[in-house]
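Shipment paperwork, digital attachment
Item: protein structure file
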Amino acid sequence: MQLNLSQLDQHLQQNLKSVYLISGDEPMQLIDAADRLRLSIREKGVIDWELFHIGKSFDWGMLLQKSANMSLFGEQRIMDIRLSVMPDKVGQQALEQFIQNCLTDYIIISAPKLAKNHQNHKWVKLAIQTGVWIPVWPVEIDKLPHWLIQLAQRKNRILSQEAAVFLSFQVQGNLLAAKQELDKAFLMLEDDQEISLGFLQQQVADNSKFTLWDLIALSLTGEHSVIPEILGKLRQEKIAPFLIAKMLQKECFDIERASRLMKEGQRKEQVFNQLQIWMPRQKGVNKALGRYSAQGWQKLWVRALKLEKVAVGLEKGDFWDDCCDQLMLMAGAPIWKH
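Attachment content:
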């Protein structure tokens, strides 16, 4: 069975198939489709999730071993396969066997674009025969505004038509950049506020200056010497203190969770995908994980919660001084010990 990505939401309202093969060279759409599938499957009560990042040197025997082992308590699993390259002959045979072994589970396979010869591979034919194939394609420029509006709707947010057209022009087909702009808007506006043209125009204008995202990235990578200067510029640009506190909370919370999950034995790649820590953030988060323990990042998260109270006037303090201390601590400056 083959579906267009635009048909996926309607399909998810029906009985789900055991196998989903998503293929294409547009990473944002691959991620989006897999996320929507996982969410729908989890809503059916399936919480056991196995993630496999597969490259050229992958151990296919390990994959087959996993597929042969029943889930703890015999419950259904989400078997999430992410192919960075198309498999060789050994991998093709392993995937065919894997699909046969896991038909009582839910299998999501994300793969590069399938050329015609790839579509003749036995594992691909088996996946399509027993499940659903969703090829994804780059979004055409004239269809990008509609894609952005739908993306906002899936987050229960409202993006105006004029704002969608403006953002489409600004990102020039870069879906990841478009999503990042919308994520910033989601964070700055209340759930029931429309993302308007004026709001996005101001947000894009602000991007030509140092951004809060830049500042947090520098703190995570440990470049603390530039923090006071950049924070001062953000203060001059009247960046809302409440927004800064919220962003610092999210960053500390995500890193604390990542640290705990990895300590429990989960692979870093699995944790990053689970917490949606994508490539632009991974360099900084990697360094931050080695800077403090999970308990240390929890203390920093609590500190960021207090910073929010200072920002809204519930506690006394100098927000900008306290914020600078918070960023310096996150960067590993010798101010405070965890």
